[in-house]
Amino acid sequence: MSRRPAHPARSVTAAAAALAAVGALTAAAAPGPAHASAHPRPAARHVLLLSVDGLHQSDLAWYIARHPHSALAGLTAGGVQYTHAATTNPSDSFPGMIGQLTGGGPGTTGVYYDDTYSSALLPAGTTDCAGAKPGAEVDLTEDLDRNKDSLDAGQGLSGLPGSILQMTGDPARLIDPSKLPVDPTTCRPLYPHSYLRVNTVFDVVRTAGLRTAWSDKHAAYDILDGPSGHGIQDLFTPEINSKAIGYDAGDWTKDNAATEQYDGYKAQAVLNEIDGYDHSRTHKVGTPAVFGMNFQSVSTAQKLPTSDGLTGGYQAKGVPGPLVVKNLDFVDRQVGAFVAELRERHLADSTTVILSAKHGQWPTDPTALTRIDDGPLLDGLNAAWKAAHPGSGDLVAHAVDDDAMLIWLTDRSPAATGFAKDYLLARSGTGNDIDGKAKPFTASGLQALYAGADAARYFHARPGDSRVPDLAGVAQYGVVYTGGKGKIAEHGGAHADDLDVPLVVSGAAAPHGVRVDGPVHTTQIAPTILRLLGLDPQDLDAVRIEHTPALPVR
């Protein structure tokens, strides 16, 4: 959608003045006491939150510089751009999205990744809880679906994929309870929303009597409902890792055109919601107070070596390649469509649009890529442990290694965590580079490895917490843990490529053309949403625990 050229961004000093003109900079200070006597006056009636997986602040800046009339340029010019925003560490989809909607990091929310482990829960399928040994995988991926091969997660819709908008807005009923970890206290399966330790923006907004909606990629995003289980009235979650109908590559992430088509379904759901309908456009329910979606297409464009005749990833350090550029164009068109629809429905003056990302992606320098198969590293660790401790079982209970290393152990003692740390830091071997050629690595590809209590402190968690990893590895720049050669990027780690994401607050209550260069965090989005709606950020558990301030928007 055509936009006038963006005005030059103003300095931080000018930004402060502009923000002060809009309202008091209450967000610049730590929040006051819980349940303050007076809530701020609502500045917006609606907040549209858009999260673009993989998008870096550098990508947004690169795109706007070359497309000054784009929708993304218009969005940025019409609001506040925070140029040094950081997402959660680990920089995975679940902690990243949960951080945006709770105000807390993994040490507070208890969610470290989309596939983790808890030493306090019981394995899925446990029925005799009195005699069961604690320790269970907590899988928040497509594996929870009743049918993970189907776009509707097993609902049984006919006419897929065209009928996908008829998918239920209550995906919890599409989760197979036999695949869930079991709560030892109740001896019942623990649904994702009950696994979350704190409430969400959706919980608070629902309690205030306002409408909520969201669109994301797995039924397991039921977790965003919050502990109440009812935070989101309309949760649309077509399964991205299902078989992509009409494509030969596999699931919707294996062909970038398929990912765009998939994202298009969620974009249509948002357009329907702007128009005052539910996601399916079946029921007239009113435009939600808080709603939005997650985009996947930029992320797959960064990960796939090639797709649709275009080269994926980056051409040089920070320079998007053809496939990534194509998907920046795609996201720009969707944002333009949302903005145009808000104007058409006379909602532009009462809606604040927030643009950010769950995570970035690395490496943005293709020459730095080192692919390492983590399987032999973990197998070797188990073998070394058993050799040193005859009669013992595997030391590794669970591991998640993308471009970071998160490991949970069956023995959480200092001796065991120290053993694992020493073993991994002593491993060298050979991986492969961007062209698939041999490339040596040292220290298991790690720059640093935190073990035991140090790992807990690294995540700002209590040592011994049942969910915190026993080892947290920070990878050397460019390392991606994969056994193949079909992936050129990943996320999850603590490098700038993973953490440095865009953050734009535009529309109602936002001054135009403001640039703030000071550091902020995406966890500040949650209290900002509530403040925009005239609700109390202190009603968020994580905001009270972490003293998370709102962004300086008003």
What do these coordinates show?
The chain is α+β, with helices and mostly antiparallel strands and 554 residues long. The chain has 16 helices and 25 strands. The strands form nine sheets. Strands 1, 2, 9, 14, 23, 24 and 25 form a seven-stranded mixed sheet that branches. The protein has a four-stranded antiparallel sheet with strand order 16-17-21-20. Strand 16 (396-401) and strand 17 form a beta hairpin. The radius of gyration is 23 Å and the shape is globular. It starts with 11 loop residues before the first helix and ends in an 8-residue tail after the last helix. The model is unreliable at 1-38 (pLDDT under 50).
Largest sheet: 7 strands, mixed
Averaging pLDDT over every residue, what do you get?
A: 93
Q: Low-confidence parts lasting 5 or more residues at pLDDT below 50?
A: 1-38
Give the N-to-C terminal Cα separation. 28 Å
Describe the structure in brief.
With 554 residues, this protein is α+β, with helices and mostly antiparallel strands.
Task: Offer a few descriptive terms.
alpha+beta; 7-stranded mixed sheet; 25 strands; 554 residues; disordered N terminus; 28% helix; 4-stranded antiparallel sheet; 19% strand
Q: Which helices and strands appear, and what pairs or packs with what?
A:
Layout: H1 12-22, E1 46-52, H2 57-66, H3 71-77, E2 79-86, H4 93-102, H5 106-109, E3 115-118, E4 136-139, E5 182-183, E6 188-189, H6 192-195, H7 201-207, E7 213-215, E8 234-236, H8 256-274, E9 290-295, H9 297-303, E10 306-307, E11 310-311, E12 314-316, E13 319-320, H10 322-344, E14 351-356, E15 370-372, H11 374-388, E16 396-401, E17 404-409, H12 414-425, E18 429-432, E19 438-441, E20 446-451, H13 453-458, E21 471-475, E22 479-481, H14 496-499, E23 500-501, E24 504-507, E25 514-521, H15 525-532, H16 541-546
Parallel strand pairs: 1-9, 1-14, 2-25, 7-8, 15-22
Antiparallel strand pairs: 2-23, 2-24, 3-4, 5-6, 10-11, 12-13, 14-24, 16-17, 17-21, 18-19, 20-21
Helix pairs in contact: 8-10, 9-10, 11-12
